[in-house]
Amino acid sequence: MEKKQTIYFELDVVKSRLVKDNNVLIQQTMNVTEYLNKLTKQTLIMPFQVHNGDAISGAVQSVNARDDIVKIYQSLTTYLIMQAMTLQLYMAVGVGDIDTDLNYTQDEALVNGSAVVLARNLAMPTLKLIATKQMDKKLGIQTDFKKAPILLKIATDHENMSMVEHILMLVYEFELNTDKKRLIYSTLQHSENWRDDLPKLIAIKNSGFKETDTLKQIENRARMLVTKADVQAVNNQLAVFEEK
Known about the structure:
Elements: E1 5-13, H1 22-39, E2 44-51, E3 55-62, H2 65-82, E4 89-96, H3 114-135, E5 150-156, H4 162-175, H5 179-188, H6 194-197, H7 215-225, H8 228-238
Parallel strand pairs: 4-5
Antiparallel strand pairs: 1-3, 1-4, 2-3
Helix pairs in contact: 1-2, 4-8
């Protein structure tokens, strides 16, 4: 039997001080927290909770950390897009252990262990440093963390996770490098009959598609951005993490 690992997630809203409507910030942060708890309910050992106003933390147990991190990242990205969330999130992930007895307390301020330390003290500062450098045009950095809804950094004391980060960046920042492309992919990623499922785009807020659009108009505009082959190529790239 494979040993279970703890995956600790620390999320923070990018540039939260610039959000004009604090009620929107609070509501969307709470919605994300609720979604993560539902998404991970089978493996959750420390429920996701909001702290410091716009930060979220929680932990799951896993026998395949790479696969589970990818699935959570991809599912949450799809949720943010489909719900027309205006938030961009830092996601710092630590893979290790939690030493605290979670039967005694699940308060994020009191929980400790290697997974927590790696996420909070290594992954998150590194993530924010990279993002800050990206914003400094004088440095000429034009690759990492530009457009994706979730900016990811993983820290672990026993396995190199750079491949996970690189492929997710490739998918969500280069291949699906606009909101419209990510929206179309999120809607049609599991579609068996692409043409019949295209009208689903109309129902999504801020999709740019209208009820007055004909199927041909939707198809032509969608295929200019993302084709069925593009969707399959992205799915194939993400499938490299799935447990064989």
